[in-house]
Amino acid sequence: MEVLIWARESSRELARAEGWAVAQSKAQFFETCDVVSLHMRLVEATRHIVTGEDLARMKSSAMLVNTSRAGLVETGALLTALRAGRPALAALDVYDDEPVRASDPLIQLDNVICTPHIGYVTREEWDLQFADIFDQINAYAAGAPMNVVNPQVLSSPVLRARARPRA
């Protein structure tokens, strides 16, 4: 895959310095790419950074992948664009309303692959995370909590009163 970058100017300069191809403009980026994958934080400057106009520029064979944050894409723009055929496909792991429901219009489209905000997880990572969670539950039940961020609460009278078994 040939990678093409579009980002803030400072990030584009870093990409150039590292030898990555950088689009001449945001419009050229959306017109050129076969796959647009979003990898950025959602902050006020990036909210709705991808507009309906950007999506309409995409090829009729292109795909948008968003595993970052739904708010990066203008509200309603992706649904409209997918129904219009530009882009042709989307792969989503994030939604305007989470948890995503089966009634979400994006879920109803046959040109959208949807995962429930866990698309980044491999089976190995899933097994590791849940094994760790069970270890922590068992340690707590045995009276030896582990990985406690605020251990001072373990001696709290309020916490001990709530944790007592009730008759």
List keywords for this structure.
alpha/beta; 167 residues; elongated; 36% helix; two-stranded parallel ribbon; 4-stranded parallel sheet
Summarize the structure.
The protein is α/β, with parallel strands linked by helices.
Number of strands: 6
Q: What's the mean pLDDT score?
A: 90
Taken from the alpha-carbon principal axes, the silhouette is elongated
Radius of gyration: 22 Å
User: Spatial order of the strands in the main sheet?
Assistant: 3-4-5-6
Oligomeric state, counting identical vs distinct chains? single chain
Strand residue percentage: 5-15%
Largest sheet: 4 strands, parallel
Structural class: alpha/beta
Report the order of strands and helices: EHEHEHEHEHEHH
Q: What fraction, in percent, of the residue positions are helical?
A: 25-40%
Number of helices: 7
Low-confidence stretches: none
The first-to-last residue Cα distance is 64 Å
Task: Please explain how this structure is put together.
The chain has 167 residues and is an alpha/beta fold. Helix content is 36%, strand content 11%. The strands form two sheets. It has a four-stranded parallel sheet.
List the helices and strands and how they pair.
Elements: E1 4-5, H1 9-17, E2 21-22, H2 26-32, E3 35-38, H3 52-57, E4 63-66, H4 77-84, E5 89-92, H5 105-108, E6 112-114, H6 123-141, H7 157-163
Parallel strand pairs: 1-2, 3-4, 4-5, 5-6
